[in-house]
Amino acid sequence: MNALETQLIARINSEGPISLADYMAECLLHPEHGYYTTRAPFGAAGDFITAPEISQMFGELIGLSLAQCWLDQGAPTPFTLAELGPGRGTLMADLLRATRSVPGFHAALQLHLVEASPSLRQVQQDSLKGFKVAWCESIDALPEQPLFLIANEFFDALPIRQFVRDGEAWREKRIGLADGKLSFGLGPEAPQPALEHRLLDTKDDDLVEVNVATAPIMATLAQRIAQHGGAALIIDYGDWRSLGDTLQALKSHAAVDPLTAPGTADLTAHVDFEVLCTVAAGAGCNHSKVTPQGVFLERLGITDRARALAASLEGAALESLIAAHRRLTHPEEMGNLFKVLGITPAKTPPPPGLLS
Ligand code: SAH
Question: How many C-beta atoms lie closer than 10 Å to residue 16's C-beta?
Fold first, then answer.
């Protein structure tokens, strides 16, 4: 039994069963034993691989899309260039390299990274040598000025609650103890006003998920964009509205039991893009269509970029570039599972690449 499991069992013994959101928060961000606080999980040697770690093309194209959007909005100066959950800092490094030749962009930007993990902040600092970076704990700390923001696989890492339908009420899935071990159970039935709309598309025993932090984070960033201008590109796996259990625990690229060895596996859940769109619209922003990642990257010219890079490669390096292009765009790989959403001020077109 690991140290976090011992602590969780003691907590459940004294407080009773805890919600899945509380469990995820402890597993991912516990200061001593949390997954993101203690590990460098990305890449071939880690537990999962993300798009920016697959190829430099990902961050480059996102950079050019955001920079074009900045130009289209009159090149506001200064502006905040921000990333939520930057991981190893690879996407931001690629974005900054690709936008070096955009006149005025680098001189106007103030770089802010929202990152909870102290060890990942260190890795990000190393990736972004030569740039002045300000880190913040939460999006509320971002300056009140135009905001151009990227979030790749950030929202899927935020804690969720799960509810199982019981008549017109819901029972929350919780983590308690069975035979001294962590075990899933259901809480008492209770009405959930926030799930009113889900009574229309669910039946008894269906499970729905609520990402507790998504709406407040989206509200803050949409308010900044509505008031000061800017754009957000949000990329994640998920769809318009999720139904069923999408909690996933990954370790060394394989699915594992989420309750075994807490803090040692990456825990994620599908992102509900409906919530992001509804909150953005409520704050007075425009949002793009939820666009498949493959479509977004193709519209930004990933194939031309791959050809340009291929011209100087051969052998294994060329094979790897071709595989990366396919992995990022093909509908059977990340191309369809991952979606891109663009948020801009009212009556402003979405960043290039997105369907409006
Ligand atoms: N965007 C990166 C990493 C995705 S993993 C990539 O594509 O490779 C999720 C990232 O979000 C990690 O950097 C993690 O430490 C960070 N994170 C998770 N929960 C967070 C929170 N509540 N606040 C700030 N950062 C968080």
Answer: 11
Instruction: State if residue 87 touches ligand 1 by the CB under 6 angstroms criterion.
Output: yes
- Give domain status of residue 255, yes or no: no
Please tell me the distance between residue 347's alpha carbon and the centre of ligand 1 in angstroms: 31
Ligand 1 nearest-atom number relative to CA 117: 15
Mutate to test the pocket of ligand 1, among 38, 135, 154, 217 (most ligand atoms within 8 A of CB): 154
DSSP per-residue string spanning 287-334: E---EEHHHHHHHTTHHHHHHHHHTT--HHHHHHHHHHHHHHH-TTTH
Q: Which domain holds residue 311?
A: 3-160+212-241+269-345
Residue 84 belongs to a domain? yes
Name the burial class of residue 55, with classes exposed (0-12), middle (13-18) and buried (19+) by CB atoms within 10 angstroms of its CB: buried
Closest ligand 1 atom to residue 213 Cα is 22
Total structural domains in the chain? 1
Q: Is the pLDDT of residue 39 over 90?
A: no
The CA distance from 109 to 81, in Å, is: 6
Domain assignment present for 259? no
pLDDT in tens, 227-240: 999 999 999 999 99
Task: Specify which residues 136 forms β-bridges with.
Answer: 114
For residues 271 and 211, the answer to whether their CB atoms sit within 8 Å is yes
- Residue in 196, 191, 193 with CA at minimum distance from that of residue 172: 191
Instruction: Please provide residue 292's backbone torsions phi and psi, each rounded to the nearest 5 degrees.
Output: -60, 140
Backbone angles phi, psi at 124, to 5 degrees: -65, -40
Residue 270 contacts residue 333 (beta carbons within 8 Å): no
The pTM assigned to this predicted structure is 0.96
Distance CA 49, CA 329 (A): 15
Residue 12 belongs to some domain of the structure:
yes
Quote the ligand 1 centre to 310 CA distance (angstroms).
31
Mean pLDDT calculated for residue range 207-223: 96
Predicted local distance difference test score (pLDDT) of residue 72? 97
Contact 129, 50 (CB under 8 A): no
